[in-house]
Amino acid sequence: MSVVKQLYQLQEVELEIESNEQALAQIASQLGESQAVVRARTKLKLEQQHLEELRRQQHAAEWEIEDLVSKLTTAEGKLYSGRIKDPKELTNLQHEVDGLRIRRDQLEDKALAIMDRVELSTASVDTLSNELKTLEAEWHSQQQQLSTNMEQLKTTLSDLKHKRQLLSVKIDPQAIELYQELKKQRRQAVAKVEQGICRGCRISLPTTELQRARGDSLVQCSSCGRILFLA
Ligand SMILES: [Zn+2]
């Protein structure tokens, strides 16, 4: 095999290594905590806190009603007992009972409104919790898929690197040196020649250059400097 063909094969393997390494980096960036899951978790936590606060308000209102009802029962008992004869005292007591009734009705309305909000918030917590579960399940299976792909890529990469090693030891060290030097400048050191054109720089090659490239020797494109490879 000509040295040019060997270099070309080496380049093919190295390009493949490069693209596999890029794919690996891409996967690595997708591994880890999902932003969507983090957001859903935060949303759920806030709604749970909101529900807790509503329940606290609900209990406070209920206790207040209980307290008020007991005061009202006492006041009503006194009012209707027939024991109080003084008209002024009776009027005052009637006013107290009226006031307590109004306050009780207001509080009952308030408690009902809070109950409605508790119901809404409970439904919200359920929905958010289901959404989070779905997202976590999706994320989990995605992570597993990514890990599997990663393992496959690592195996492929290790095979390719082994192949590169096997190829490079067979190539003349001076040719490798030139190849590495060109690679630094042009990324691809070897250019295919198709229909007399260097595929590296797309320039038509002089006939003499083409003839020299057909031989066994290593010929560089006079325009871009790449090693010419005639397939
Ligand atoms: Zn060229």
How is this structure best described in words?
- The structure is a single chain.
- The protein has helices spanning 3-30, 35-79, 87-170, 173-186, 207-214; strands at residues 190-194, 197-198, 203-204, 227-230.
- It has 231 residues and is mainly alpha-helical.
- Strands 3-2-1-4 form a 4-stranded mixed beta sheet.
- Strand 2 and strand 3 (203-204) form a beta hairpin.
- It starts with a helix and ends with a strand.
- The mean pLDDT is 95.
- The structure holds zinc ion.
- Zinc ion is lined by residues 191, 198, 200-201, 203, 221, 223-224, 226.
- Biggest sheet strand order reads 3-2-1-4
Helix amount: over 70%
Q: List unreliable stretches of 5+ residues.
A: none
Number of domains: 2
Give the helix/strand class: mainly alpha
In short:
By secondary structure, this protein is mainly alpha-helical. The protein has 5 helices and 4 strands.
Can you give keywords for this protein?
mainly alpha, binds zinc ion, 4 strands, 231 residues, 2 domains, 5 helices, single chain
Write the layout of secondary structure elements.
Elements (H helix, E strand, L loop, with lengths): L2 H28 L4 H45 L7 H84 L2 H14 L3 E5 L2 E2 L4 E2 L2 H8 L12 E4 L1
Parallel strand pairs: 1-4
Antiparallel strand pairs: 1-2, 2-3
Helix pairs in contact: 1-3, 2-3
This protein binds zinc ion.
